[in-house]
């Protein structure tokens, strides 16, 4: 442990090369920005111990990048590794988030996380309830922008007709990835820049 | 022996991990797992004596650092972040601007390093020969700001324009071939631009691959329509509204077949709209021609009698037309009732035609001026002989090339240098265009926003939601403006080597100004439609502009003889004669013979025919490949569907678990990496990031 602490910073940062971030200075700059932003969200007394402390979900949701995102709560819950399942993020989870939403994350990673985000009840498949909640998220919180129940039924039928290949009434991960891999817009829109 | 067994087991574990790491990039695991794998390999690789990988790694990291620096990343990230708030289309505009900046940087370095600097440093200085000196008549006001702003006076007789350059074949102790360099840089800038545009188009086309699918319409709408770069409540609300509308539209379209009632009315309205647009285009073309004729009349009568407007009439009219006609087209297009994406494509096409028409009318008018100047040149040449005769008081020497009597260069009668005139016109056009853009930005965006914000309290109707409200950031209009400016640079760069430098400055200021305007005064567009699915639409436009803007320059180089007393090609009958001259004098004799055989029409025509046949062959093979590609894609899709059907959900879950199981096995064999190690590392990274932060600030 003593040996690792005395290593040169360059070597340590090179470890993170494995996790999709390219460019040395880009890396350090991204780190310092992520670190700074995460720091701001922590309580004053936790700021020294950044390795172990967690930021509660309501504070994460104040980040401007997530503030207007309709899936912000799901994003926090998906990336959180907290045992309490309260959506709080540690610095590692935060870096995971940035890594998955970065420019250089592969389609496989993005589609995997997208599936987990859309899976509102965490049961491993997207069933009618999940799809309904998804559509309601996308049409906004206002009443005049919501779809009527007939329109909703029609929409969900159309979606299942297109994506549900084994006709079991739900969309599982492979079917989801099959649909996403053909889409031209997904990789460019599933991106967050800090 | 036991030790060897342990080492072997360790080696196996390390190789296993290494294989894992090779696929780590594609695995959606949390960072901790990935870190542990990497740390394990590095820790024990040292024990096995393989340290070379690390040095290579450090070198690769260094190279990436250099590359990252070269990309002006800090500014780029700032722009991306700010413009990302409005969605990815505005971000793509700034990316395009950055790419243009890169091209202009190369053009600037070519013209500056190989043309301007050698002439400034190694050739004869200002005042030594007639072409480099301000004539006596003009010296009184050569330093006035008004004259300099108009690029006359000392600005005209400097390395900024064609006329200053001397036609000496080799200058300085380096024996730098100035005329050859000037010619080759001119050709090289065009060639480089072609290469870069086509390479980018090819790269974009490769990344595209099969975006023309409509089989997952609804699923894509629901899974991929949200733009995660949006960070602004207003944009988000707009996006919600547009998503809802698109859902409802799609549902309605799916439910009932569209009944095309009143198709005749629609057709009639569309024809009417196109007719109005054609009238508009013709009107603007005629207006420009009329204005240029008028400016020629003014020039003949002497510009001193007229005020600022008359002097800059042509440029101002062109800029104003470029500003108001697109708005007119927008209004006319409401008659047509097209789908927004198609309406946008029509709009872009019309603006393109407008700019092109204006530019070419301008060039035709410029040609008239060139012919005038050439006629004037004949007169000056005639007067020159009389003037020389007067110098010698009647005794005309046989060989009249050298003047033994010392005459001040400022007093020698000067020919009208049409090349410098062309360069000046382009520079003036670019400057007035830039000024118009900036002033429109300040008034149309900033002033409007200020007025709406502060007058809203004391106004009868809601200024923010009704007229005029805040202005939107028009991505397509701005991209077109950028493309046409670049076209003007390509056109004029041969005659005014200062143009790439000017453009570089302009782009730099534009970047910052538009970034600020987008953040401060603009609201996001209500319906965000991209003109096409790929970036190649604008690239194709850029390519067409590149081709069309190099045509006039090539025409003037090939067909008009250069002026007799200014520029690096003076004295030659055609500008490209410099190539012939270089081949004759600098290369061995056989080279010239080979070149003359190669340029024989009897050889060139069959070669052209061969190239046409090759293009036809490549085109037909690419069509076959595309067809085969489509067939393979269909087969792949059918195969994938079969695989998805045949694999259970349970089996999917299992396949995710197996690496984890393997990993726990390996973990059990190693020292467990405690959380403390990671905390310690984070603390050091804290210190580094704080240090870098302070460095960057």
From TrEMBL, chain A:
**Keyword tags:** Calcium, Magnesium, Metal-binding, Repeat
On the tree of life, the source organism's domain of life is: Eukaryota
Keyword Hydrolase annotated: no
Q: Could you tell me which residue ranges the EF-hand domain spans?
A: 106-141, 151-186
For the keyword tRNA-binding, the answer is no
Q: Name one GO molecular function term.
A: calcium ion binding
Q: PANTHER family of this UniProt entry?
A: CALCIUM AND INTEGRIN BINDING FAMILY MEMBER 1, CALCIUM AND INTEGRIN BINDING FAMILY MEMBER 2
Protein name per its UniProtKB record: EF-hand domain-containing protein
Q: Which organism is it from?
A: Pygocentrus nattereri
From TrEMBL, chain B:
GO BP of this protein: detection of mechanical stimulus involved in sensory perception of sound; vestibular reflex
Q: Which domain of life is it from?
A: Eukaryota
Mark the transmembrane ranges. 68-87, 99-121, 142-165, 180-198, 268-292, 316-335, 347-367, 487-505, 537-558, 597-618
Entry keywords, A to Z: Membrane, Transmembrane, Transmembrane helix
**Coiled coil start-end:** none
Ranges for the TMC domain?
417-532
Q: Which GO terms describe its cellular component?
A: plasma membrane
UniProt GO MF annotations = mechanosensitive monoatomic ion channel activity
Q: Pfam families, alphabetically?
A: TMC
Q: How does it sit in the membrane?
A: Multi-pass membrane protein
Major location (coarse) = membrane
Q: Where in the cell is it found?
A: Membrane
Q: Which PANTHER family match?
A: TRANSMEMBRANE CHANNEL-LIKE PROTEIN 1, TRANSMEMBRANE CHANNEL-RELATED
> Member of which family?
Belongs to the TMC family.
Record-given protein name: Transmembrane channel-like protein
Query: Which organism is the protein's source?
Result: Pygocentrus nattereri
């Amino acid at each position: 442990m003593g040996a690792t602490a005395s290593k040169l910073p360059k070597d340590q940062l090179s470890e993170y090369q494995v996790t999709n971030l390219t460019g040395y200075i880009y890396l350090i700059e991204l780190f310092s920005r992520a670190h700074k932003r995460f720091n701001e969200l922590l309580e004053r007394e936790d700021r020294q111990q950044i390795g172990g402390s967690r930021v509660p979900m309501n504070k994460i949701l104040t980040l401007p990048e997530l503030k207007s995102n309709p899936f912000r709560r799901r994003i926090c819950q998906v990336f959180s590794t907290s045992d309490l399942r309260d959506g709080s993020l540690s610095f590692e989870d935060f870096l995971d988030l940035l890594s998955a939403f970065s420019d250089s994350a592969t389609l496989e990673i993005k589609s995997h996380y997208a599936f987990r985000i859309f899976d509102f009840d965490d049961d491993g498949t997207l069933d009618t309830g999940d799809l309904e909640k998804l559509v309601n998220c996308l049409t906004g919180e206002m009443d005049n922008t919501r779809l009527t129940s007939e329109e909703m039924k029609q929409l969900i039928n159309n979606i299942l007709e297109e994506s549900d290949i084994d006709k079991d009434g739900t969309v599982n991960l492979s079917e989801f990835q099959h649909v996403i891999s053909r889409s031209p817009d997904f990789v460019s829109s599933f991106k967050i820049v800090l | 022996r036991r030790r060897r067994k342990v080492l072997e087991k360790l080696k196996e574990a390390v190789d296993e991990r290494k294989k894992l790491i090779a696929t780590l990039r594609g695995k959606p695991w949390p960072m901790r797992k990935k870190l542990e794998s990497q740390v394990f390999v590095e820790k024990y690789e040292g024990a096995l004596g393989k340290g070379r990988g690390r040095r290579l790694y450090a070198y690769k990291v260094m190279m990436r650092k250099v590359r990252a620096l070269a990309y002006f990343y800090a500014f780029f990230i700032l722009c991306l972040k700010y413009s990302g708030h409005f969605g990815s289309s505005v971000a793509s505009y700034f990316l395009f601007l950055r790419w243009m900046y890169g091209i202009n940087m190369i053009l600037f370095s070519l013209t500056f390093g190989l043309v301007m600097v050698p002439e400034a440093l190694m050739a004869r200085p200002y005042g030594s020969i007639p072409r480099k000196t301000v004539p006596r008549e003009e010296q009184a006001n050569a330093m006035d700001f008004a004259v300099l702003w108009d690029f006359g006076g000392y600005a005209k007789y400097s390395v900024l324009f064609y006329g200053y350059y001397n036609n000496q074949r080799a200058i300085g102790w380096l024996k730098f071939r100035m005329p050859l360099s000037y010619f080759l840089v001119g050709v090289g800038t065009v060639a480089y631009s072609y290469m870069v545009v086509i390479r980018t188009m090819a790269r974009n086309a490769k990344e595209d691959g099969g975006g023309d699918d409509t089989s997952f319409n609804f699923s894509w709408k629901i899974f991929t329509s949200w733009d995660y770069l949006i960070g602004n409540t207003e944009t988000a609300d707009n996006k919600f509204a547009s998503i809802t509308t698109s859902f409802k539209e799609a549902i309605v379209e799916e439910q009932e077949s569209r009944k095309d009632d009143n198709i005749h009315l629609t057709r009639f309205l569309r024809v009417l709209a196109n007719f109005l647009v054609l009238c508009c285009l013709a009107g603007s073309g005629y207006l420009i021609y009329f204005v240029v004729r008028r400016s020629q009349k003014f020039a003949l009568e002497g510009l001193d009698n007229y005020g600022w407007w008359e002097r800059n009439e042509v440029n101002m009219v062109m800029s104003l037309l470029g500003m108001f006609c697109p708005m007119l087209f927008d209004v006319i297009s409401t008659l047509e009732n097209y789908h927004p994406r198609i309406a946008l494509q029509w709009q872009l096409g019309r603006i393109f035609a407008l700019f092109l028409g204006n530019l070419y009318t301008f060039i035709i008018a410029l040609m008239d001026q060139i012919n005038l100047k050439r006629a004037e040149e004949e007169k000056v040449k005639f007067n020159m002989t009389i003037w020389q005769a007067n110098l010698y008081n009647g005794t005309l020497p046989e060989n009249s090339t050298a003047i033994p009597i010392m005459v001040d260069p400022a007093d020698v009668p000067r020919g009208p240098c049409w090349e410098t005139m062309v360069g000046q016109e382009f520079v003036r056009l670019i400057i007035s265009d830039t000024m118009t853009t900036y002033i429109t930005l300040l008034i149309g965006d900033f002033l409007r926003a200020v007025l709406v914000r502060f007058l809203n309290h004391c106004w009868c109707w809601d200024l923010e939601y009704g007229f005029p409200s805040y202005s939107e950031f028009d991505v397509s209009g701005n991209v077109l403006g950028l493309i046409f400016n670049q076209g003007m640079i390509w056109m004029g760069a041969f005659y005014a080597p200062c143009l790439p430098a000017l453009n570089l400055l302009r782009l730099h200021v534009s970047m910052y100004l538009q970034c600020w305007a987008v953040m401060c005064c603009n609201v996001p567009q209500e319906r965000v439609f991209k003109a096409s699915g790929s970036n190649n639409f604008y690239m194709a436009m850029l390519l067409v502009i590149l081709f069309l803007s190099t045509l006039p320059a090539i025409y003037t180089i090939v067909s008009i003889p250069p002026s007799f007393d200014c520029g690096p090609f003076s004295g030659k009958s055609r500008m490209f004669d410099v190539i012939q001259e270089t081949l004759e004098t600098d290369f061995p004799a056989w080279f010239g013979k080979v070149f003359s055989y190669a340029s024989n029409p009897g050889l060139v025509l069959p070669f052209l025919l061969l190239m046409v046949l090759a293009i036809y062959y490549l085109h037909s093979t690419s069509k076959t490949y595309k067809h085969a590609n489509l067939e393979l894609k269909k087969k792949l899709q059918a195969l994938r569907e079969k695989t998805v059907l045949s694999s259970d959900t349970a089996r999917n879950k299992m396949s995710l678990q197996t690496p984890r199981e393997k990993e726990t096995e390996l973990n059990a064999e190693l020292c467990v990496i405690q959380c403390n190690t990671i905390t310690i590392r984070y603390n050091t990274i804290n210190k580094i990031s704080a240090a870098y932060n302070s460095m960057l600030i």
